[in-house]
Amino acid sequence: MGYLEGFKVTFAQIFGERVTTPYPKEKTPKALRQHGRHVLNRYEDGMEKCIGCELCAGVCPARCIYVRGADNPMDDPVSPGERYGYVYEINYLRCIHCDLCVEACPTEAITESKLFEFSFTNRADAIYTKAELVVDDEGMPRHLPWEDWRPGEEVDTSAWMRATAPSGSAAYEGVVAWSGELGFGVRAPEADQVTRDAITPPPSDGHDDHGHDDHDDHGHDDHGHDDHGHEDHGHDDHGGGH
Q1: Cβ neighbours of residue 100 under 8 Å, at least 6 residues apart?
Q2: Nearest alpha carbon to residue 160 among 92, 103, 96
Q3: Please, are residues 111 and 161 in contact by the beta-carbon 8 Å criterion?
């Protein structure tokens, strides 16, 4: 192929249908359970959900969470319990977004948003403190200068927590087992499996998820019949076997 023919292919693509997303001006939809930047939630009355139990720090495999609890002031408590998170820090140079901290939290205080586009120019900015993690007075995550927030990315910050069930029991599927959050109230649970399957039905082209069709390599289906509807009893063409 000569140079001119090569340019012909290039110019033909310029006027063709675009199949790419012009990022960062536009973003593709993110998964409902996207693991992104953490937030510390509040109750609907404004009190913090974090009780300073340090379970999130204990379960973190990357040792990126540092928490210290303190007794609540009698005259102006921060959380409903006896203690609250006095110090809370996450080092995002270590965080692997495994979400184990979210599952370990007994009060659904820490959850992950859909935001993952944030970068730092120095190490100090990578260590998020409690002032940066706790949601504001309207229940919205605080937007820092190096974060690329888009509308809607704060809506499903608790999606991963609302998709899990105690011990994986199907009896808890769709059951609300969490408290309300400031600015959002009691969030709805994730749709059950039947509803999700109805929205996105599995492929029905005669192939399973591994690319196999409904028949085995010998032309028999799951019931032992061949392609002509006869059963396979293990005899030869002459009824042998004797």
Answers
A1: 59, 60, 61
A2: 103
A3: yes
Task: Match 């139990």 to its residue by tokens.
Answer: 53
Is residue 220 within 8 Å of residue 232, measured between CB atoms?
yes
- Of 103, 108, 118, 104, nearest to 39 by C-alpha is 108
Provide, rounded to the nearest whole percent, the portion of the chain with pLDDT above 70: 73
Torsion sign, CA atoms 174, 177, 181, 186: positive
Structure tokens at 232: 């396979």
pLDDT digits (tens, 9 = 90+) for 89-116: 999 999 999 989 998 999 989 998 888 8
CA distances from residue 123 to 91, 119, 135, 227 in whole angstroms, order as listed = 9, 10, 23, 66
Q: Phi/psi of residue 66, each to 5°?
A: -125, 120
Q: 48 with 40: CB under 8 angstroms?
A: yes
Question: What is the rounded distance in angstroms from the CA atom of residue 155 to the CA atom of residue 187?
Answer: 9
How far is it, in rounded angstroms, from Cα 118 to Cα 239? 73
Between 68 and 230, where is the model more confident?
68
Q: Hey, how many other C-beta atoms are within 10 angstroms of the C-beta on 219?
A: 11
Mean pLDDT computed over 8-34: 80
Fold exhibited by the domain 38-199: Alpha-Beta Plaits (3.30.70)
Residues 6+ apart with CB under 8 A from 191: 174, 199
Only one residue has tokens 């974090």, namely 50
Checking if the pLDDT of 182 tops 90, the result is no
Question: ∠ at Cα 157 (156, 160), nearest 5°?
Answer: 85
Query: 122 is written with which tokens?
Result: 């120095």
Gyration radius of the chain over CA positions: 27
